[in-house]
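Recap quiz, item 2
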Amino acid sequence: MAEVKEKIARKVASFFKPGDVVNLGIGIPTMVGNYIEDGVWLHTENGLMGYGPAPEKGKESEYLTGAGAQFLTAYPGAAAFDSATSFAIVRGGHLTATVLGALEVDEKGNLANWSRPGVIVGMGGAMDLVNGARDVIIAMEHTAKGGKHKILEQCSLPLTGAGVVTKIVTDLCVIEVTKEGLVLKEVEEGVTLDEIRQKTGAKLIVPEHLETI
Amino acid sequence: MNKLVGRSEIMKLFHDNMTIMCGGFANRGNAAKLIDMAVESGAQGIYIISNDSGDPDLTVGRFIRSGQARKLTASHVGMNPELGEAVLAGKIELELSPQGTLAERIRCGGAGLGGVLVATGIGTVMEEGKQKIEVNGQTYLLETPLTAEIALVKAYKADVMGNLVYKGTQRNFNPLVAMAAKTVIVEAEEIVPVGDLDMDEIHTPGVFVSMIWNGEE
């Protein structure tokens, strides 16, 4: 299972190049940070640009933490700022991309990842991130537990954002969200088109030439 | 002007049905000792404005566990299952505001603005009950300002005039809530004489600050 998640994280990380500025959500998105190239700059919404991996034991600082209160390190050139500045970066189009998980994502690029029935959590910064980041990349396992579809014709859960998702990266494939619908871009080696279709609850546009990951 | 005060003076300020704004983010950079005082004051029916609900036994979470909070405006409450239970049981009212929107609503409150236009939340439940305004062909939601009677601020350094410096990721909502309340109380790690802070390093000018806890219990 961990291997599957790492594979997804590595694929997403390969999209970024030095100079890109990226915000990573929790779960698989967080793992993307382990595989990014030097020079890809990470933003955390609680007020830091340029953070690095978790510190060694004994070197934790309570002044250097992430949105989940976890300890971080900072690269030379990192900057700390208040929450209004942090979301000026987010909403103002200064983020190359955000990588988030999803409960549901649909063929119009709608995303539901903040609310499910009977659980009160809150959206945190997710609604701002999906509206502001230039690319909104969903990194997730293709289906939910029990094989339930997560990629749908239409989301049923409360939306985080409408028409915001640009890419979906799963353990099976890479999908691009376009005006025409969901376009299959790359398929994981050993995975058949039939399997992807069966595990996807929305229509997929399959181009003639399909790359294998 | 010396703004240092002791615990007893601060305790006098808390009363029933008041609004308190808290700086801090996920228990980091919260004025934890000032929150303890507010809880110990016994004031009831408090409306809390804060980024999050804290953990059940930490910072903002203490107001929930003690039953003193009547309402909470926050962006994230996932760290505190007791808050979820209290909401479902009808014991506390919860207003969720997206984090960036919440930050700007507080900034508006402090800066004397009538609100802020955000695209965040368009096409979601955040639209409910809000005015939509079109500017240059783009649709925005009008989000209204937030203010409070008291703001509880955590600073790294304060001079006795109330000029503040924050450190690292403990800055978060602190400079925003420090502008948006009638009475702004500061808990500082270090209190320094006037003149010690360079004017260019000050994050919150002392004009926003009402009092600084002198650290005495």
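Residues 148 and 181 of chain B are 5 Å apart (CA to CA).
The first strand of chain B starts at residue 4 and ends at 5.
End of item.
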